[in-house]
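Worked example 2:
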Amino acid sequence: MFDLKFIRDNPEAFDAALARRGVAPKAVEILAMDGKRREMMTDSQTAQARRNEASKQIGMAKRDGDGDTAAKLMAEVADLKVSMASMEGDLATLDNELDGVLMSLPNMVYDDVPDGADEDANVEERKWGAAKMPSFEAKEHFDLGDALGMMDFERAAKISGARFVVLSGHLARLERAIGQFMLDLQTDDGGFTEVMAPSLVKDQALLGTGQLPKFAEDLYKTTADHWLIPTAEVPLTNIHSGEILDEEDLPIRMTALTQCFRSEAGSAGRDTRGMIRQHQFNKVELVAITTPEQSDAELERMTGCAEEVLKRLVLPYRVVKLCTGDIGFGARRTYDLEVWMSGQGRYREVSSCSVCGDFQARRMKTRCRAKGEKQTRFVHTLNGSGLAVGRTLIAVMENYQREDGSIVVPEALRPYMNGVDVISPA
């Protein structure tokens, strides 16, 4: 969502920002609707003022015994009531149309975001660890899991269809250990407060964070008009929707480990084997709510917290800044963490950390106020994966595999594995 005053004052800059994201100019259309809306509001206010005045005049006419004047005024008030109701309906329709246009547009990215059509234009910021291939022929996670007898896609398909998996035994425990380790790290060392939030949300929550209306096809909706969350970003960020927060209490940092649900409507033919792209998966989410002055530094901090997971697990990774053609709908700047997968011989995304500015806050009507001040302003919101649990499991399996097909459990996870330090075939 955007500030209409900014668009009025900077129409060319607004269109230039949209052009960087491949969107056609919209300022003229928006300003025409905004101008008509303001005219309608003025007409409505004028009619209301006349109605109030006429109502007073009716009382005066009746007091003076002037029945004819009172009758004419009463007829005028009745006509004004009808016309005002029509005005209110037309104004509501126009408001909805204007909101629809504004909500369909992606956020304006920061100047330092690289231009580009797709992921090939992303810019590598830094690397950590040595991306090595083992001395033997490395296997991908689905072959490793099948040989272990603990990763079953065929039985999952029998139950639920494609893009589901059944994990069992030590691999199931390893996934649980990874999620628990991430959550403990972010709450104990990262300064995030653990939250258990609903996995079913209403339309307004998804409108607030930007998944609706544009990405409805990527979501699952229940027959009771709830949506399954695609990420815990949705409930966590919306916890403070409609509120005015004290600036001295910011930043607010929250984390949650939840199941996430995505239809993957736009990924037909991509990653059809294995656990990379599932309809249901676990993820630890990081969310921060800050003042505008804090948000850039908070993005660096959040990204560092996500990186720390990979460092503790000794998994090589790189950080890339996403270009205009690859960045998310609501983001102004995004860093992706890509972990090395030795079985695939390449880096794969395991986390995205984004600053959204006031884009989501305007949709959610979340503001903040400095101590002693009357004026409020919109907060800034941030979100990031800390990390995607299933993809981290894949990275552990592929990078810690041994020639005999067993998986060494990283030291950081061993306290969660009840003494198991190597996973071998059942």
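The radius of gyration is 27 Å. The first strand starts at residue 123 and ends at 128.
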